[in-house]
């Protein structure tokens, strides 16, 4: 399916805001999205990472949401936040190993609706930024669907897609694992982080994005719509 | 508190500037920071930055330069930069990102608040904001003559006026009047247009008054006419060494055949504030080991003065070696007095860094002895006693016995001429790792005292011989490559992991000696006779063994390591600690660390080159 173009996207978003019952999602959808023709370096972003029990939004659950805001390419750590979600099912062992979250820790988390509420509040007026954003969008849509009855329609940039585009442009072949967050960060001389909680990965993605845009734009303008993942490129 | 931004907090702790803050402050500090990424080539700090913004480099590198584009400082991982309130209009500092960089930025208002609450942090902050400007001023200052150490200037710059001259026919009385009138301690004696000699107040005392000579006699009768001279271009330091070796206090400065000035030890000492000359003279006057050990105590002080006056590695090594040589000679004289004259001619040899004249104050003894062939068994016994006397004496003077037993008290290092000849051919004809190690030592032996004719021909003979010995050269090269500089894959410094020297770098073993070994291999390849590492490198370039760039890079690396070590030792001496070769990189500035890494990288590259040449041909 062809993703909706920006204008259509905005329009559908407004229409949906009218339909959604009062609550965080409605507040979020009613809020403005950043101007798509403005330069990336003047756009507010929110870098996001989700930890989940797996990769399938239909079956797996969100364990935590981490985020940090960027004003243009300046990452503001005062806005860094993370919330944990108490899963309704046991955490599969495999993902517990990756995230180092155990059932016990997860049990201390709050409900999905609390987490989602907080998250949508900070997301308002910002473009979401994630590495391999399809996963984040899938889980968030699914969560909003189950909590509020509607998907959330978040304008998004994807650092993995940007990396792919850069490589295609340079006609580089992508090596296996070459699009991983850490592999890409290394290309831009970014340090390797040890921690892999949602907040750390959100920060890692934010730094990667800053590096990608800095290199791609050099000193020339780079409007937001040129890097957006959703809504997709203009028609 | 949960582990939120723990990673950033941990990084702050590795920065000496942030680490002064108390734990609870550090816990909440990450939340105050902004993260910025600047591409290579971006001006730094970026235009929009405000006064007092504090930048901490998380990754990458920034160069800071003055208005003449001189590099003032290099910021690397963990270094901070405070944006100054107003740029110093006289010394504008401009920065540029030279490696894609990630920064943690503490905004000005927060930085100001932290400074108010934490004086320790304020101090670090002040230093960070002053540093580039100060270095700019220092760089400017170094351009002029004022305040510059005498060791970096030439004699010409110290000559302030033309020499006061007199003819040989003038009376001694005239000379004395002239000296008083002109307020000088020496006159140049000119016979027509030619330099005939000099006469000093010392000559007046010793050769006229004390000798009961008439004041009406001509000056020519008491002048010194066999003269050492220097030119305007002679480095002042060399003049100083010359005077201390010959025990003279004045040197005419010549331009062609014409004297253009006269410099005295006082001139040099006034400018330099060091007592290298007096130290050597005092040593010569000592009549007992006890007295020598007293005098030797000022050796660390000498290094402090030399380092502070800006001596280069070459000069510092020469000066310290000159003093240690003087100590050794004096001890040999004392030994000969006590044990009686030597039964056959001999020479005392210095080895290792003393042999190459590259010594610093932290050193132990490395010596050997050669004596003329003799059938008499008593001969060897005499030199064993002599060796014992001298090495014990040096030990008492603060130069400990050699832990590796490289000492003429050990029969291996005390041989007759034919014994040494045999030893040279043993280690060069059938080389293995151990023999090549010995050979490396043998070829760095230098005659300190005694009959140089015993050893020098032997060395040149051996040097010619090894030129035609590919297996020997290959073994020397392999030995030179046994150790690598402490630089990791990501250009990080690899520190000593544990023990007393944990978290330090041994700049001698892991740096200077690697360069010296390379230089020795080059010297063999090029058949060079020079001994000093810098001489060998220059010679290797000249002989085409290495490229000019490679030679210059290695010389720079050597200079960097030597200077850092000298300064480290000075700090230790000042702090009342025993000087050593172990530098904790934490104590170095960002610029110094960058230079250090560059130096190690150069060594690594040259080792790689040598290794691949060796691998390609199996020999050199």
Task: Give a verbal description of the structure.
The complex is a heterodimer of chains A (235) and B (620). Chain A is of the alpha/beta class and 235 residues long. Chain A has a single domain (6-217), classed as Nucleotidyltransferase, domain 5 (2-Layer Sandwich), CATH 3.30.420.10. In chain A, 42% of the residues lie in helices and 17% in strands. Chain A is built from 9 helices and 6 strands. Chain A has a 6-stranded mixed sheet, sandwiched between helices. Chain B is α+β, with helices and mostly antiparallel strands and 620 residues long. Chain B folds into 4 domains: 6-143, Jelly Rolls; 154-272, Roll (CBS-domain), CATH 3.10.580.10; 276-467, 2-Layer Sandwich (Beta Polymerase, domain 2); 476-617, Up-down Bundle (Four Helix Bundle (Hemerythrin (Met), subunit A)), CATH 1.20.120. Chain B is built from 23 helices and 18 strands. In chain B, strands 1, 2, 3, 4, 5 and 6 form a 6-stranded antiparallel sheet that branches. Chain B has a 4-stranded mixed sheet with strand order 15-14-13-16, with helices on both faces. In chain B, strands 7-8-9 form a 3-stranded mixed sheet. The longest helix of chain B has 28 residues, at 590-617. Chain B is globular, with a radius of gyration of 29 Å. Classes of the chains: A alpha/beta (235), B alpha+beta (620). At the A-B interface, strand 3 and helix 9 of A face helix 1, strand 1, strand 3 and strand 6 of B.
What's the short version?
Chain A has helices spanning 6-19, 24-30, 93-99, 103-107, 112-123, 133-148, 159-169, 181-187, 198-217, and strands at residues 44-52, 62-71, 74-84, 127-130, 156-158, 228-230.
**Largest interface pair:** A-B, 26 and 25 residues
The CATH class designation of the largest domain in chain B is Alpha Beta
SS field, number of helical segments of chain A: 9
Q: In angstroms, what separates the terminal alpha carbons of chain B?
A: 62 Å
Estimated helix fraction of chain B = 40-55%
Question: Do you know the CATH architecture of chain A?
Answer: 2-Layer Sandwich
Task: Identify the quaternary structure here.
Answer: heterodimer
Distance between the termini of chain A: 13 Å
**pLDDT under 50 segments of chain B (min length 5)?**
136-150
Radius of gyration of chain A: 17 Å
- Give the CATH class of chain A: Alpha Beta
Helix content of chain A: 40-55%
